[in-house]
């Protein structure tokens, strides 16, 4: 059997992908030893990511060729707009990050890069381009979350960040994204490859930045 298109993209980025999913951030999150200021710096940046992420999801809904796909993407969008945001707010409170600290911190380069990449993918009006970025943003997160050893750390800030990215609903959504990319990606292969690779590079840089830019 020939290689799935989504898998061929992942393999083309194997080295960077593996460095991201085995990152120090993932290791320290999993054993609960991550420093509070690293976790805070990471979450402040990640919370900013959500707005452009919704632009990307909206573009995927708009450019998809199928009603059935739009329903799946729409249900996921509703979930992100609802429950997802409360984790951030509870985590900021537990870590002592007030609104002023959150607002003051500038976007790091990887955050700015990711926001631009998601909006660029949305602007292509190509379903394949949006799927390439979504497959990285979701698939790479599922991959690292599934590698975290169980039992999970006791603090909810750590444990919930893992279970948000490794639960049955998310597993099913990532499988959907892969199947969609396999279906429409080959007709737009160069575009999909380009967006996929830039997204993987940014995921690694995003983890690195949490250690470089602490809130202090
Ligand atoms: C840098 C970065 N990349 C990917 C994700 C994963 N992610 C982004 S939005 C979203 C939807 C709801 O969970 C998910 C899973 C992240 N959080 N941060």
Q: How does this structure look, described?
A:
The protein has 216 residues and is an all-alpha fold. The chain contains eleven helices and no strands. Helix 5 runs antiparallel to helix 9 (156-163) and helix 7 (109-123) crosses helix 8 (127-147). 38% of the residues are buried. The site of the ligand Cc1ncc(C[n+]2csc(CCO)c2C)c(N)n1 has 12 residues, from helix 4, helix 5, helix 8 and helix 11. Its EC number is 3.5.99.2. Residues 13-211 form the Thiaminase-2/PQQC domain.
| Shape category | globular
Kindly report the average pLDDT value.
Answer: 96
Radius of gyration: 17 Å
Query: How many distinct beta strands?
Result: 0
In whole angstroms, how far apart are the ends? 53 Å
User: What percent of residues are in strands?
Assistant: under 5%
Helical percentage? over 70%
Q: Could you name the ranges where pLDDT drops below 50 across 5 or more consecutive residues?
A: none
Largest sheet, described in full? none
Overall SS class? mainly alpha
Number of helices: 11
- Which ions and ligands are bound to the chains? ligand VIB
Please trace the helix and strand order, writing H or E for each element: HHHHHHHHHHH
Pfam family, one: TENA_THI-4
Keywords: Hydrolase, Thiamine biosynthesis
Catalytic activity: thiamine + H2O = 5-(2-hydroxyethyl)-4-methylthiazole + 4-amino-5-hydroxymethyl-2-methylpyrimidine + H(+); 4-amino-5-aminomethyl-2-methylpyrimidine + H2O = 4-amino-5-hydroxymethyl-2-methylpyrimidine + NH4(+)
Pathway: Cofactor biosynthesis; thiamine diphosphate biosynthesis
């Amino acid at each position: 059997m020939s290689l799935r298109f989504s898998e061929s993209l992942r393999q083309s980025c194997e080295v960077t992908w593996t460095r991201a999913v085995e990152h120090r951030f993932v290791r320290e999150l999993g054993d609960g030893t991550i420093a509070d200021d690293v976790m805070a710096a990471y979450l402040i940046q990640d919370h900013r990511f959500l707005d452009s992420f919704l632009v990307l999801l909206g573009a995927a809904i708009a450019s998809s060729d199928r009603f059935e796909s739009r329903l799946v993407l729409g249900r996921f969008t509703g979930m992100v707009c609802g429950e997802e945001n409360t984790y951030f707010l509870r985590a900021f409170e537990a870590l002592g990050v007030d609104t002023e600290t959150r607002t003051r911190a500038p976007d790091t380069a990887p955050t700015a890069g990711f926001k631009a990449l998601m909006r660029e993918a949305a602007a292509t009006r190509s379903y394949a381009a949006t799927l390439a970025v979504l497959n990285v943003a979701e698939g790479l997160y599922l991959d690292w979350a599934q590698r975290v050893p169980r039992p999970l750390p006791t603090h909810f800030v750590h444990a919930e960040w893992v279970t948000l990215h490794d639960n049955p609903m998310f597993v099913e959504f990532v499988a959907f994204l892969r199947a969609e990319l396999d279906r429409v990606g080959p007709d737009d292969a160069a575009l999909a490859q380009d967006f996929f690779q830039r997204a993987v590079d940014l995921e690694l840089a995003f983890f690195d930045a949490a250690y470089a830019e602490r809130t202090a």
